[in-house]
Amino acid sequence: MDWLLNTIYYVVPFIVLLGVLVFVHELGHFLVARLCGVKVTEFSIGFGRKLWGWTDRKGTEWKLSLIPLGGYCKFLGDEDAASASQSDKNIASEEQKYAFANQNPFKKLAIVIAGPAANYFFAIIVFTSIFFFLGKMDFPAVVGDVIKGGAAEKAGVLKGDKILSVNGKKVATFTELRQEVEMHVDDKIKLEIERDGNIKSFSFPLQIVPLEVEANQSSKPRPMLGIHSLNAVEITPIEVGLGEAFVDSLKETWRITEVTLRGLGQMITGRRNADEVGGIIRIAEMSGDISREQGLIDFIIFMALLSINLGLINLFPIPLLDGGHVVIYSIEIITRREINETVKEYIFRFGLFVLIALMLFATYNDFARLFHRWFS
User: Hey, which residues are catalytic here?
Assistant: First the structure.
């Protein structure tokens, strides 16, 4: 029965999560392609052999495929699912105008950007809905309790202190505070605190504490301030109107994007360990943990967070990703000439190499994390 429970708690949520995000992403490409007059020949959730499908009246084959690790939207004239190469040689003359290859670079650019944009739009809708229907439950960045022997206590932080900034970055909520602590990579952390109407500054090293293996956590040691937020009983959800909920959702979406980019920058410059990069296995692990230990709302929030990351990653200027296409079509718009097909082929080959290398690295990290979680 254990295998059945693991399937329910880990495999099913993962397939649902990935299926929804891939559908949203490809639907963005699909809708804008239709608006631009491009014929979509295939819309697939998954890769490989078709399990189920149907063809709509405009000739698009909608299908579910065997390998649920992505998907694609194939346009008329595409010679592969990634739209890395196009040809109109085998297209009837009356359908030439519907081929992706025959569109101007502005339309191509719009179609390519639509996928990541749809992921961002999905996240904004999720956050707006949660804020509007459930209200906002912000834990202010006020110290509830100070852990005895922790870094904060040793530095002189007291219960009731209001933390204004971390390393010069203003914080208003405990979520933002925790985020800045997790982004910390220097020897000492700098806090600006308001106490009894006075502003005080603290600078001290964080305490490295091993976490217990729980949902969404790893046993890897992490830096901690050594404080708790106010008790949840003391906080009541704040009702907001639809307009305010939408604005707050934009802020939340930007916060997640900014944190992701900062973390990536720290990895590139060597200030943060690259073993934090995770792949498909890590996503499956986290989605299973959340569905098992938390609830539907937390799962949907996690889905929105991943949707932002999927949209952002796809905008990176790596050939084969949407961002690589954006660079190519932008160059063609600026130069007013199409890049040679042979040059494009070599560019996309390089992109394939980069993506395979990143996937292997992320998978290695995933297995190393699982080994550490199960056997340490």
Answer: 26
For the chain, what are the domain ranges?
138-235
pLDDT tens-digit profile of 9-38? 778 888 999 999 999 999 999 999 999 999
Question: 191 - beta bridge partners?
Answer: 166, 202
212 has pLDDT over 50: no
The pTM score is 0.84
In sequence order, what DSSP letters do the residues of 323-346 get, joined into one string? HHHHHHHHHHHHHTSPPPHHHHHH
Residues 6 or more apart from 152 whose CB is under 8 A from it?
143, 146, 225, 226, 227
pLDDT at residue number 211: 46
Cβ proximity of 151 and 181 under 8 Å: no
- Architecture per CATH, 138-235: Roll (2.30)
**Per-residue pLDDT tens for 160-208?**
899 999 888 898 888 888 888 888 777 788 999 999 889 989 888 877 6
Helix-helix angle 280-293:341-375, to 10 degrees: 50
Instruction: Single out the residue of 39, 21, 53 nearest to residue 86, CA to CA.
Output: 39
Helices (H), the chain: 2-6, 12-35, 105-134, 151-155, 174-182, 242-268, 280-293, 296-314, 322-335, 341-375
Taking 50 as the threshold, does the pLDDT of residue 296 lie above it? Answer: yes
Position 166, amino acid:
V
In whole angstroms, give the CA distance from residue 36 to residue 238. Answer: 42
